[in-house]
Amino acid sequence: MSDYEIPPPEPKEIDEKLSMELQILASNAVLKGHPSGDEKCDNCLYYLDPTQEISYCWHQKLRILVGGEWWCQWWEEIPEE
Ligand code: SF4
Fold first, then answer.
1. Per the domain annotation, does 14 fall within a domain?
2. Atom 6 in ligand 1: which residue has the minimum CA distance?
3. Percent of the chain having pLDDT more than 70?
4. 53: domain range?
5. What is the 3-state secondary structure (H, E, C) of the chain?
């Protein structure tokens, strides 16, 4: 029997890098984890699939997964057809 213990998981360098990049991106977008009044990702033009609680935001400055209840300064009304 070995005394070797598996070390607890730790964030790697790539995680620190991605975390920093995403924080800058979120900060530029003024991205919040809650709605702003009636405005939220769920009813924004850029939210790809409003039937999902989490979906892809296709705004060119974001292109990340966001939550339906989130909001950012680039919120845009869905035009009526
Ligand atoms: S542009 Fe902003 S408000 Fe619209 S889906 Fe993307 S993150 Fe949400």
1. no
2. 57
3. 99
4. 29-81
5. CCCCCCCCCCCCHHHHHHHHHHHHHHHHHCCECCCECCECHHHECCECCCCCCEEEECCCCCCEEEECCCECCCCCECCCC
